[in-house]
Amino acid sequence: MASPKRYDKIAFVASASAEAQTALEQLTAMYGNHLPADADVVVALGGDGLMLQTLHANMRSNKPIYGMHRGTVGFLMNEYSTHDLRTRLSAARESLINPLLMRATDIHGAVHLHHAINEVALFRQTYQVAKLRILI
Asked: Considering the entire predicted model, what is its pTM?
């Protein structure tokens, strides 16, 4: 049986809400705070919007991201607690996320590639018809 993963270096990111900023101060005082590039795990403190933003910003890093609810909507988040965070991180079940890939060709023929965790939105700059093709 594999030993549990160790998360010695934690990077905390927080939304701008007072609740998330207070949590950031508490957790930083207890566990330290590393840059995401140097951390073993990224802990997002906020709501679902921050979680999606954190996933997008760190998708190429292969670092696990653990969310704790300190925002308005938190369907994607775990319960907030300062107690024994490293044990909770080690016990967390990992889920692999396969982001969507949007490939868009603009009016000048330039191809734009973007990854999306939750959704892709297109905004037309003109009133011309848009051609859409969706592949799964």
From this structure: 0.80
